[in-house]
TrEMBL record, chains A, B:
Name of the protein described by the UniProt record: Phosphoribosyl-AMP cyclohydrolase
Subunit annotation: Homodimer.
Chain ranges of the Phosphoribosyl-AMP cyclohydrolase domain: 29-102
Protein function: Catalyzes the hydrolysis of the adenine ring of phosphoribosyl-AMP.
EC numbers: 3.5.4.19
Keyword flag Amino-acid biosynthesis: yes
One term of GO molecular function: phosphoribosyl-AMP cyclohydrolase activity
């Protein structure tokens, strides 16, 4: 059996989790989980982070409706990073863009490569 | 102009960087950079991390030959996480697997979904 306590958490009890759109492979965002958030994500199938600013569980999309349905959770070789394959409803980013990684560095300058959704 | 000092680093002066295979979208690994590693990555086109264990710059593949050629570096909305689109030579993981995320959690158990390369 998988035990969330078997993962390696940082000094704050947190582990980073990458959310990747299962259908397209697009990397959407990175946020943090504690052991309980990992357990809730697996139990509910709704990706649940720990909000460092609010110091509270953060069921992604709970207020915005932009939920992340878990397709599969993966663990890396060092057990200190997670990869969540998700089915994202609407934009993942709080700026209303599909992904948080909408800024590219090209020829030494920042270029916005993704617009907010309508 | 993009200035690596404009990113948000943690208390240790580090920022996490996801390496994603540019051709396939596969997430390969996550490692850390400091501002100088970001600058070197952009200047050389060879993805360069900061090794927390060795406390030294880590030009990915320098000893193994499994280099990561940078296709594009992206910054997230909070400026505290990087996404490097790369062309990976050979396996990215030190276990000789293509990706470090070779363990999936399925039905509450850990399943190895990727074998070491030959």
């Amino acid at each position: 059996m998988f035990d969330p306590a078997s993962l390696k958490y940082d000094a704050n009890g947190l582990i980073p989790c990458i959310a990747q759109e299962a259908a397209t492979g697009e990397v959407l965002m990175v946020a943090w989980m504690n052991a309980e958030a990992v357990a809730r994500t697996l139990a509910t199938g709704r990706v649940t982070y720990w909000s460092r600013s609010r110091r509270a569980f953060w069921v992604k999309g709970e207020s915005s409706g932009h939920v992340q349905e878990l397709a599969e959770l993966r663990v890396d070789c060092d057990r200190d990073c997670l990869l969540a394959l998700v089915r994202q409803s609407g934009p993942a980013c709080h700026t209303n863009r599909r992904s948080c990684f909408f800024t590219a560095i090209r020829d030494g300058a920042e270029v916005e490569i993704m617009q907010p959704e309508g």
